[in-house]
Design a protein that fits this description.
Distance between the termini: 23 Å
Number of domains: 1
Low-confidence stretches: 1-14
Largest sheet: 5 strands, parallel
Strand content: 5-15%
Strand order of the largest sheet: 3-2-1-4-5
Radius of gyration: 15 Å
Helix content: 25-40%
Number of strands: 5
Length: 174
């Protein structure tokens, strides 16, 4: 399904940019030794500054979102859209990195991102927003599109600037 959406949106030139988005360490910044607060909808409360920065990135790029987070297996795409909408982010196009549905099926984040790039993302303009260090092992052409967040800070203004730069530079090269 996602590949069909990518084909449609890239042919229509509506979505020229894609955000590969993690949640823990990007939008959720609670220290690992503390239990995160839960929002009334049952999912975690997310960091307001990180959400605001992601909102700015989305407003400036109109990018589609691909969830890379392990949390992606908990909800379907429509439920994710609603979770983000409640938090002030209205993503028109939101998908998951792959169709895995159980934690035992997941590979390292770096491996899953590499597979996505090889099968769906080669000719697309994307940025990876993640704190997962397994991305360090990826080839340079993928790794150079990575904005590494600090887990206790999340998606900062500095990260926002880097993400915008990556998407702007790569837009010129496609």
């Amino acid at each position: 399904m996602w590949l069909g959406l990518i084909d449609y949106f890239t042919k229509q030139k509506l979505y020229k940019m894609i955000i590969l988005l993690d949640i823990d360490g990007v939008l959720e910044t609670t220290p690992h030794w503390r239990r995160p607060e839960i929002h009334p909808d049952g999912f975690m409360k997310l960091d307001e500054k990180a959400l605001a920065n992601l909102s700015i990135l989305h407003q400036k790029t109109n990018a589609a979102v691909v969830l890379t987070s392990t949390h992606r297996i908990r909800y379907n795409e429509n439920q994710w859209k609603e979770i983000f909408k409640i938090r002030g982010l209205n993503f028109e196009v939101l998908s998951k990195l792959n169709d895995k549905t159980e934690i035992s099926q997941l590979l390292s984040r770096g491996t899953e991102i590499k597979e996505w790039v090889e099968t769906k993302g080669k000719n697309l303009n994307y940025v990876i927003i993640d704190d997962d260090t397994s991305i360090n092992a990826l080839p340079n052409d993928i790794k150079q599109r990575w904005v590494q967040t600090k887990p206790l800070i999340g998606f900062s203004e500095e990260n926002l600037e880097k993400a915008l730069e990556i998407l702007t530079i790569n837009a010129k090269n496609l």
